[in-house]
Amino acid sequence: MASFTVVVGDPDSGMAYQLEADEQDANRFMGKEIGEEVDGSAVGLDGYTLEITGGSDDAGRPLNETVAGPNLEEVLMNERQTGYKPRRDGERRRITVRGREISDAVAQINASIVERGSTDVEELLGEGDDE
User: Fold this and answer.
1) Do residues 75 and 94 lie in contact, with contact meaning Cβ atoms separated by under 8 Å?
2) What's the rounded Cα separation, in Å, for the pair 9 and 21?
3) What b-and-e string marks burial along 79-116, b requiring 16 or more CB atoms within 10 Å of the CB?
4) How high is the pLDDT of residue 54?
């Protein structure tokens, strides 16, 4: 079964939360692509909606939104993109990236909160009580 680390960014507070999605919860992410929305209950955020913004596979290769499907592909990059930062003007390089679709090979998924629930994020995750 698939399991993912899901890094959820909160645009209002600027905080990021690293959560786990195992087995059935991980299946909610399978087949989704970058830019699609997922129910937050998959990672314990009931009532929230998350948008998939990126991710990486086991080897650290980034998901690239220009590549269709879940497979690896070598892409010729000539400007700054996810996974490539040119060192000088005009530099081009062929970089191996994974497609934009979530599959078993993905180890980390990056997501952002799009719609909020009635309960605060810290309360749902049990954080902020350590005083």
Assistant:
1) yes
2) 15
3) eebbbbeeeeeeeeeebebbbbbbbeebbbbbbbbeee
4) 94
